[in-house]
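Page 47, continued from p. 46.
Same chain as before, 123 aa.
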Amino acid sequence: VQLQASGGGLVQTGGSLRLSCAASGRTFSSYRMGWFRQAAGKEREFVAAINNRGGSTYYADSVKGRFTISRDNAKNTVYLQMNSLKPEDTAVYYCAARRFGGSDYYANEYDTWGQGTLVTVSS
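Result:
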């Protein structure tokens, strides 16, 4: 599978953005998907993950209640709806795909990464 993230941009504090990650290939529905982010000078961190059918979701404490991950397997796309954005959400956001086993929370468990999309939240 190959991944293409989009939807980043500049938004004011309190605003919303929806990120999309389009996947190529016929096996998208067999992959668990995750979103990670990396702010300047910091390590990449887990944001959210969703299982292959979309029935289970997982979030970092820092985004819980503000971000929602979802997927549409018919469209080979995973989404990250981000509401109530804060300046500390500013980062490059990456989508990633992995098979089963291991943990959704660790970047090294993911096999395939998209190119990243920049989200900037102004104060």
